[in-house]
Amino acid sequence: MYETVRREVHRVALSLYQQGLIHLSAGNVSARASSEHVAITPSGLPYASMEPEDIVIIDLQGRVVEGRHKPSSETPMHTLVLGERPEVGSVVHTHSRYALALAVVGKPIPLICTEGLIVGGPVPIAKYACPGSQAAGAAALEALTGPPAVMGTLLRNHGVLTIGKDPKQAFNIACRIEVSAQVYHLALQAGDPDTLTPDQIAEIRATYQQK
Question: Would you list the domain boundaries of the chain?
């Protein structure tokens, strides 16, 4: 019944692993399986050996509906975001190195290149909350709703959380944030990075909309 969404979640989790945005069994991916159910990566299972059938089906309270493994330890964060944002179809949580480094020192990522425009604005930092808690989801929701509303946030001392209409979009946002973090880190070594002005941002968006 949930074969398609399991494959989709597994495919994105494997892509995140191959891109180096998650490691071993850290990080997690979820997607809506129905109006009441969510497909989510299991807890503690290395991505290198994970198969689609290992993806767990849970309800929005985090209870297992189908699956042979425990759901991700970050289930409370995923279910809160999905429960509060009905337009969101997927949540991705990564521990990508450059973004995590900025989250540790409390540096949001300003809009310095076109990568950030895909996120929707500067990448904010959510207030610190204990990993694995519902409070982490509440902190992420607060950061995501801005202003401006964005599709990804740094989690203080923890990593990155992104949202999308489906796992592929949430994956793309996670990749964009890590590239933005890398560029920002390198730019800080060379000098003071120039942020894009509102006029420049409007011009870029207008130009891309014409293509």
Answer: 3-196
pTM of the predicted protein model: 0.95
How many C-beta atoms surround the C-beta of residue 28 within 10 A? Answer: 27
Q: Hey, which residues are catalytic here?
A: 74
Per-residue DSSP letter, 163: E
Tell me the per-residue pLDDT of 42-71, one tens digit each, with 9 for 90 and over.
999 999 999 999 999 999 999 999 999 999
Domain 3-196 belongs to what architecture? 3-Layer(aba) Sandwich (3.40)
Residue 103 neighbours by CB distance under 10 Å: 26
Pairing state between β 37-40 and 56-59: antiparallel
Identify whether the C-beta of residue 177 lies closer than 8 Å to the C-beta of residue 123.
Answer: yes
Exposure class string for 118-148: b at 16+ Cβ within 10 A, else e: bbbbbbbbbeebeeeeebbbbbbbebbeeee
Burial of 157 (0-12, 13-18, 19+ CB in 10 A): middle
